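> run fold NADPH:quinone reductase-like Zn-dependent oxidoreductase
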Amino acid sequence: MTMRAVVLTGPGPVENLSVRDLPIPEPEPGWVRIAVRAFGLNRSELHLRLGYAHNARFPIVPGIEATGVVDAAPGTDLRPGQQVVAMMGGMGRAFDGGYAEYTVVPRAQVIPFRSELPWEVLGAVPETLQTAYGSLTVGLDLRPGQTLLIRGGTSALGYATAALARDLGATVLATTRQRARLDDLAAHGVDHPLLDDGAVAASVRRILPDGVDAALELVGTPTLPDTLAATRVHGTVCMAGMLSNVWTVPDFYPIAYLPAGVRLTGYSGDASDLPPAVLQRALDQIAAGTLTLGPITTYPLDRIRDAHHDIETNAISGKAVALPHPPL
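> ok
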């Protein structure tokens, strides 16, 4: 039997992505085959296509996450029909990932859940929630009543982090480079939407003269110095994204680069860093209307090139989700 899947032949333009018929993969003991109902698209897959990923094999079915139901799970505690998400652990890099009607992943990368939310909503959650939750808890140790600046607020991760921070009881400032999206930030609970012209530290300090308690840097190293300048003494900046596609700081000299007393950390996580209870609570809150992780733009599998183009050109805000519509 065959399935439809997206294959990336190698680094390059969107034309290197194509939808093909491939054999449905067989799970080994300890692995789980998931019938994919939805998968989120991430900057990680864009970076893979642009040639920035290390240790990736080609051709590959990309995709570091997938949402669906268990189709087969030999030697595991999971049962067919169970709702699950899967993420990371080599998906879409070391082995074929979630851009397909079926994907096979190690049991350790799978988190079960229960929800009646639409698949396009469920598909937007796993990796974004994992990174937002980990950035706030591990990267920033954010506390109720503190202030948070999100640099890159209209990304999927920006919206999700704002929602979790507000749920925690923090005051949120978030940036966008597009004036038309300031209202979107306000509509999604951001207390102080800020227009980003490359230098927002002065705007932040007009609101908070001492600077923010914490800042999440999602744009990358070009804006990192200004984000550090917006943060108070003994505050923390966490680097967790690279929307600019720029990773490194040339000739990094810490004493000159880092403001006195401002702490710089980083965050990247795995499926094991998202507790199942945190995932379930977020899904329950979304269903109840008390939490939103931001806008969702959906694409059929055949429009995967359009989805990548829209992400690369920042044509959409929030999360892109593909719906492969596998057979039931």
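The radius of gyration is 20 Å.
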